[in-house]
Amino acid sequence: MSLINYSSREINCKIVYYGPGLCGKTTNLQHIYSRVPQETRGKMISLATEMDRTLFFDFLPLELGQIRGFRTRFHLYTVPGQVYYNASRKLILKGVDGIVFVADSQIDRFEANIESYMNMLDNLTEHDLNLEKIPFVMQYNKRDLPRVVPVDDLERELNPRKAPYFEAVALKGSGVFDTLKVACKLVLKTLG
Amino acid sequence: MVKGNWALFEEDFWSINTILQNLIHTSSAKSVMLIDKTGQLISSIGEPPGFDVTSFASLSAADFAANQQLALMVGEADFATLVHQGANESLYLSMIANRVILVVLFDRKTSLGLVRLKARRSGEELLSVLNRLFDKLQYKNEELSGTTLGAEFAAEAESEIDSLFQD
Predict the structure, then answer these.
(1) What is the CATH number of the domain that holds B124?
(2) pLDDT at residue B3 above 50?
(3) Which of A24, A111, A154, A155 is most buried when burial is the number of CB atoms within 10 A of its CB?
């Protein structure tokens, strides 16, 4: 739910990174945090377990600066990917303006991607939201690993609405900013 | 915007800030924040906090959301207020109109009882301002959409995105 404050001239938008456990959602945010100029990024918050698994969410605010007099910010969130944290995932989707689905390209994670994608659709429905109407970008992560599903197969199963997609190796940063840029631009289009 | 999301206009913003100022004054709190329940900061009044307010807003919303789910589990519709009491600094959080969270940060110069009392009154005043705002958003969407950002905003924002978000 974007919030435009005409008095303080601020615009805030929320983008959520969704996907199965260990697919690389947090890694995406860590890469963004490490590469954007310091004045662009806020403090990154990670509510994680001692084993560095996301417990509730990661949060990274990014500020574009003044755009035609409006301070424009994107708030990036990740959801916890592990199946049993669904209550938390549902909460984080509240008020979402755009979604990045990070799929794990490895063959043995194929089912986990589908399960997470279906779970996302269910959770959106619970918020009376429809994926057709939300800016959505698909990211096929871990493309550098040896046993990965061909992109065509991933597209067929996970991206029937043909949203923009990117291949990525989030650990090395490849594809991370391509994904983010398109997600941000799609969200801004909905404000115009 | 104004297409089902929400916008805050000059007059509403100042009405809200006046209420928050008054709350600071009457409760002797350190600072007061109003946060959208999705975690976006609407306004912050009082002593500038020595922490990152954006992160604080996001965590407060998450705190409230998690507690709301706990309330449902124990058979309550919600926990309308939350209190976090520390040795020196404490927080009082309260949901208004099921849409925004009022957060009062206070120390030992005042008491929870006073904060609670004054925050409740301010909450009622905020409710009427917010209801007026939501009505305006609901019924004037078309009229308002003419005043919004437009193609030039999108073009400029896109170029900023391209220059900032890169390896």
Answers:
(1) 3.30.450.30
(2) no
(3) A24
Number of independent structural domains in chain B: 1
Which of B140, B159, B143, B142 minimizes the C-alpha distance to B151?
B159
Give residue A102's identity as a one-letter amino acid code: V
**Average pLDDT, integer, range A37-55:** 88
Inside any domain, residue B1: no
Task: Give the residue, B111 or B143, on which the prediction is more confident.
Answer: B111
Task: Tell me the helices (H) and strands (E) count for chain A, helix number first.
Answer: 5, 8
DSSP, res A70: E
Residue B75, classed as helix, strand or coil, is coil
Which domains does chain A show, CATH number per domain? 3-191 (3.40.50.300)
Place of tokens 């417990």: A55
Q: A5 touching B, CB under 8 A?
A: yes
Q: Is residue B28 part of a domain?
A: yes
d(CA B167, CA B164): 9
Helix, strand, coil tally for chain B in percent (to 5):
50, 20, 30
- DSSP strand E in chain B: where? 6-8, 31-36, 41-46, 81-85, 90-96, 100-106
Verify whether the Cβ–Cβ distance A2 to B5 is below 8 Å: yes
pTM of the model: 0.87
- Give CA–CA dist B21/A88, Å, rounded: 34
Q: A47: which strand partners? A: none
With a CB-CB cutoff of 8 Å, which residues 43-62 of chain B face chain A? 43, 52, 54-55, 58-59, 62
User: What ipTM goes with this model?
Assistant: 0.81
Q: Best interface-test mutation with A: which of B161, B162, B163, B166 has the largest number of A CBs within 10 A?
A: B161
Q: Is residue B4 part of a domain?
A: no
Q: Choose the closest CB to A95 out of B38, B41, B149.
A: B38
- Residue B21 is predicted with a pLDDT of 96
